[in-house]
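Field guide to reading this record: the first block holds the primary sequence, the second block holds the structure written as discrete tokens, and the final block holds curator observations. Each block starts with its own label. This record concerns Unsaturated glucuronyl hydrolase, catalogued under organism Umbelopsis vinacea.

BLOCK 1 — SEQUENCE
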Amino acid sequence: MQISPSVDFPPQDIKSELDCTDTTQKAITEETKAVFKAVLDHSAMEKILKVANQEPAVPDTFPHYTNFGATEYVYEFSKRWTSGFFSGSVWALCERASKRELPVSFENLVKIARKWQSGMEKEQYNTETHDIGFMIMPSFQRDLDLTGSKPCGDVIIRAAESLLTRWNEAIGCLRSWNTTSTKIYEFTNKDTDFLVIIDNMMNLDLLYSATLLSGDPKYAAIATKHAETTLKYHIRPDNSTYHLIVYDPVTGKRKVGLTHQGYDHGSTWSRGQAWAIYGFATVYKYTKDPKFLDAAKRLTEYFMSRVENGAVYWDFDAPRPCVWDTSAVTIACSGMLLLCQLQGNLEYLPQVTLLMKTCIDGALTNEDGVTILDHATVNNYEHANHRIADHGLVYADYYFLEVGNRLIDLGLA
Ligand code: GLY
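BLOCK 2 — STRUCTURE
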């Protein structure tokens, strides 16, 4: 495999000093303070711990989404891309406990987080999916950062090696799925169709971390090349995004842009747009290349232009009335707060306030809920093999907790 030239390293530190000019200070309204206080309410932690202290009915399975009413989780095996988010949520609470006093101690939270995380360790060898970043990083990176655990660093480097097996030099991308199908199309031949989804931007963090840990620039170089290719082919001229691009693995040429979980091939699936915001902000964090900051900002502007009275529907172009996707909200908000941290300002505070207020007012579960939020949507594509809409979802909660932690880091809550 040929490796692209090294990128600029090490990454830019997250700015600790905020540029609190009059304009940014004015963004901190009474409403903002009330919304952010609610985001950090301990009831969110109680919901996570309620599930964390229950044994799954089938051993070695992990919470994914809820049934109607958000009172019971559906569990999946560790090879599912969502499996790392639950231990990641407990680790997000550990991170919070390292910054402020919580009703449960840091040490106890670490014990619970490690119990859930242990079932994920084998996924470091998984070469069948691009989602290994989602599976590994929410837990193992936090364990490393918060406790200095050396074995976690080894897991991250090993997982990055697994991800590199999916690299195609002709295209300049990592392969997302080997094959895929819906009721109206299928791709079953890896040799003729190379599938890349916008979500893949979120797995690049793993590669940058592996370069920092190992000193080997090859992981970061591939991550940056993947981001450059995605910038070229996944973002439409109006800054909306395609979900799935199919490439020719031999010539490297783009064949077609499709949807797999959105309303239509030409529509904008709101979670895909959110992954793009967060993913490009992350690549900017590590590379300092302004074209990635510019992309993240353009994607954010598009996202916000499609928000309706604070609500984010599952696809911005789906006919109304339709269901929300609170996971798109929390992912986008965490990405916007990351942009604030990287720029050292509070540029997106009004947007984050608006969006999180809608979650707080309209999507918190009641006391029987096992998720923090309701009204997320895994996949509502009418031709999907498995449609699941309007429910609790483990990664809507994970990014909700991450938003809270970023608010603490920014001194806002
Ligand atoms: N990464 C798949 C999804 O967002 O549903």
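BLOCK 3 — OBSERVATIONS
DSSP finds 14 helices and eleven strands in the chain.
The CA atoms of residues 312 and 324 lie 6 Å apart.
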